[in-house]
Structures
1.
Amino acid sequence: MIVWKILYNSIILPLLWIAFQLLGLFNSKVRRGILGRRTLFADLERDAQRLQGTSRIWFHSSSMGEFEQAKPIIAVLKKKYPRLDIIVTFFSPSGYEHSKSYKLAAIVSYIPFDFAGDMKHFISILRPTAAVMVRYDVWPNAIWELEKAGIPIFIASATMKKDSLRKLPLLRGFHRRLYSGLSHILTVSEADVNSFADFGHLDCVVEAAGDTRFDQVMMRRDDALKRPALPRLVIERKRVLVIGQNWDADDDVVIPALLRLSESIHQLLTVIVPHEPTEENLASVEHRLEGKLTCLRMSELAGYAGEQVILVDSVGGLVALYQHADVVYVGGGFRQGVHNILEPAVFGLPVLYGPKHTNSQEAVALAAAGGGFVVHTSADTFELLHLLFSDEDKRLAAGTIARSFVVDHCGATNRFLAYIEPLISPVKPQSKKL
């Protein structure tokens, strides 16, 4: 392990840092991450003075998607322990920028780049009772410094692919030692437990606790139902199709199917929510519909006059829109990978998505169960949509399967809490290794 530490800190990490800096010259997202870290330690020193809780739990996520898996844990912890200080960090600028006003955290920050000195300084400022890494974003020096400080380290909703590059002969031993520095690896499934076993014996607890995303979408559903996203006047007596998080590649398939569907399904209202509602993307959708279907932007909804399509030109309201849907298409499956299919499924809706869905274990499982439907062409997209809108029994049956799929997988949050709650004390504990 000493050899690996030397290699990592003297060769691998400096090369990563140089690549990060060079990429920042061309990539605005990376550049924002570099600039956002310039005052990181000064900000932490200032913010840490406000921490007054009896215990401190540090949650780290790579980006916004992973942080969604931390949110249900944090929500329950803060409800049960109001004086608990929550510290949240991100590697990605998108995660940090979307979450810097997160109300349940005492501190929201970038994680420093993984230099040993910076990580030691970071930990000495925050002095967490425990550290929770969400899913997979595990940085070696962060682990080693936490381990030296005697701070318990968890991975929540951990996953490990059978063919992970971390299992290559030269890397397997390194990761076996790295993971052995953790206290608990709490995985999404038993398959992930078995996959971690490929590293050999790990000197930590590796158990399946489930995926907290199921708990999170249930919480978001309950919140969304309190605030309807569309007025009754707009949706009354309508059949509603929501096309969410779509890219151009999705539009190439789905919009031709929609045009055919609108000819046979009367009172059809379609709500289109682009993954990135830039003016360019909005104009692209409007151009595809021009002269075929009437369209109105969401920001102009006060002037609704029976338009067939509502085009959402803002961010953040997709989950609330799902409550009004009869059928949902989730985008990404004709591009890099399908987006979140659990959000519509929890409302009891049949969900369609493209063939590039194996990035999502739940998308694969939902299709196998009969609540999700994989489409490949405009023709089969039209046929499926027409069937689901025409056959109420088929639609409701698929929706029931979809909702049951989510409900049956809830509970990971409470299972995770059973491991971390013993560390939370009414008096500030001295952290020790489990």
Note: The CA atoms of residues 135 and 157 lie 5 Å apart.
2.
Amino acid sequence: MLAVGPNGAGKTNLLESLHVGTQGFSPRTRNDAHLVRFGADGARVAVSGRRGASPVALDVVLRGRDGKRARLNGVPLPSVDGLRAEVSTLVFTPDRLGVVKGAPLVRRAYFDRAIGRLLPARADVPGAYGAALAQRNAALRRIALGLSTHDALDPWTARVAELGERLVAARRETVATLAPAFADRAAELGLAAAALRYDGGPASVEELEARIDRDLQRGTTGAGPHLHDVAVVAGDRDLRLYGSQGEQRMAVLALLLAEAEAIVERRGVSPLLLLDDVLSELDLHRRRALAARVAGSGQTLVTATAAGALPASPDLLLEVSPGEVRRG
């Protein structure tokens, strides 16, 4: 699908609504109040389609203090997080360049979400590690203030070490799964010798105990996967530091396409791809390569200011104007 319209017409809002309706959150903001029209009490996104041979109907309602609720085929879900277990959606927006050029925190968050999509049995590991880490840091601060003893730290040290080992293993498997296709898709887009590299190993109980004095001074745990990074490189160049914006854009696109392939291999169903303003900074050769790739990768929504930006005939052309979407 290709959605076209002038700047400010609402193309990104259309794409955002599909993300909210299939994933339960916006790729733009975590504040749900920003998703509700000014003056309105709430908002609703309803999406219907097919997953393989089965019909799927998703319904997400946002209503002020009542929070956010979701239904799948008419059945209420305990949490909107349950949507992500049912439908996979991958999104590119211009601010997604932060996955390559941003701080390590941004890359850790991206790959931890990828764990949930590719290794659903381990989807809870990043959150469990974060919770244990927060408890250990709180214990460090209480000890430093004389409100607790070192004995209170021991169980959290063991828990952080255990979960840290599981998190590093899950991240390494995720990176290893994505790396071959990432290199191939990047090469198609003109970025040669692209690779992913996970930097860091798990912190053992012995390592954590050896640095307790430093951790007490700082009130935080100074070793473990919460400090690791995933390097996105082209040859011997770290693209975060030495990549052009065009190379960073190609790397993010290649990563998205690689994950889409991995989801198909592991789950048997193509994810929904949402590509917002992806064509504006690609030359004709790269636009053709991208169009050829997404044409065979399930359902994709691309936004552009004009139909001519996509060097292919879309299965569906949508013309977007303020408050209206119609078939082209």
Note: The first helix runs from residue 11 to 23.
3.
Amino acid sequence: MESITKRKLKLEEIKKLVKCAFGEDKIEYLEEMEEGYFNAIYYIRLSQGREVILKVAPSKEVLLLTYEKDIMRAEVEVLRLIKAKSSVPVPRVYFYDNSGSIIENEYYFMEKIIGEPYSKAVDTHTEEEKNKIEESIGRYNSLINDIKCDTFGYYAQQDKQRDNWADAFLIMIKDILEDGSHFDIPLPLPYDEIYELILDNASYLKEVKTASLVHWDLHPGNIFIDEKNQISGIIDCERALWGDPLMEVYFSNMFNPNNFSKGYSKEMLKTKAEKCRRTMYNIYLYLVMVIECTYRQYKSNDQEKWTFDLLTKEINSLKAIN
């Protein structure tokens, strides 16, 4: 996906980064990968057939959404945290550099995951195979959520973390609405009315007492499946935060969570409070997806159209709950 946030590198620049990370600059094969909407991603095969992935953060002059501050650092640290604290198959981080000494952009090299994204492989699997895969997704997501913290909020934005989930989430809502108001991006309701709607339901957020590590972007495109139909890797945890596990994407209205919930070993969305919180998380997700289109300058407005409609539906759903 083309986006203004993607920093295109020249071959000589990539060779310098490889030299810094691995002590050599010989590249047998190089390919820019189209996956992703935010970072530039390159597949590199080094000498002796070693395969690595290079991710490059946007340039500093690119205007980002507020929550996107320091998310590459967050991804590197969260990958290392998950690797240390669980059996979840995440790629190993080989090298991370935010010094600006070679290029101004942050970048890191990580292990190449064997297999292909579940989003590409899903149509080649039987229903039984998909059921087992999605149960496994639930098990791994549960292990991620088992990692805890004392404060709530985005992983890399400690200045905005709070000791309760309601305050942290209201900051997140306020930030994304301020991002939208910067360009006066049309929304289904006036900005202040959307904030007030969330504020009116904030009591349901107060039921979340423990801050869990939330991947928040664990969709089929970020889950790799090997030739044995096993999950071989989970990637892209740059948007990770400390919050409510119910915020995970598989609990959203984009997916059928039944098999996921079997693996997760805990039923969700049973109480009014859970349904209300999940609706608020849907609203937040669609606010991000609508507003980011202007910031990323996508060539197509398809995402903006369909997420605007979903945002409208979720706002109306939250109104109807009470």
Note: The longest strand covers residues 27-33.
